[in-house]
Amino acid sequence: MPAPLQDVEALFDAVKLLRAERRKMEKLSEKARNAPLGKPGQKANTDLNWQAFHVNKIEHRVHAMAVDCGLADRRPADHYRPYSVKLTGFHEYEVVPELPRCLQETV
After folding, report:
1. Closest CA to 49 of 92, 107, 104, 102
2. CA–CA gap between residue 2 and residue 5 (Å, rounded)
3. Cα–Cα separations (whole angstroms), residue 9 to 34, 75, 85
4. Coil, strand or helix: which one is 105?
5. What is the CA radius of gyration of the chain?
6. If residue 94 lies in a helix (H) or strand (E), which one and from where to where?
7. Over the stretch 56-87, which tens digit does the pLDDT of each residue have?
8. Would you list the DSSP string of 37-91?
């Protein structure tokens, strides 16, 4: 059965967002590589870490949407477990990957 058009359009929009955010990450990576030592370098690396964190969350969303559209295979259940990310020495964040609808119904 084909995926509903609204699911495909939502996936398309999410992939466009992912592409734009990865481009931002490439620019931040270049900036971090060329940053001087000290505070400017630390800031550039922190910005890059936050962008990578953001891109990772979008990738989880895109995968879940692709599974919903039938374009990707569902991964093992442990792939969707929450996990912690420590972006700085002070803060730790818990990431809860977005679940495909087929797994949301079982939870």
Report:
1. 92
2. 9
3. 38, 22, 30
4. coil
5. 17
6. strand 92-95
7. 999 999 999 999 999 999 988 888 899 998 87
8. TTHHHHHHHHHHHHHHHHHHHHHHHHHHHHHHHTSSPPPPGGGGS-EEEE-SSS-
* 74/60 Cα distance (integer angstroms): 12
Task: Look at the pTM and tell me if it is higher than 0.90.
Answer: no
Q: How far out from the chain centre does Cα 104 lie? A: 19
Share the mean pLDDT of the chain: 89
- How distant is the alpha carbon of residue 45 from its chain centre? 18
Query: Tokens for 86?
Result: 């420590």
Structure tokens at 41: 């370098």
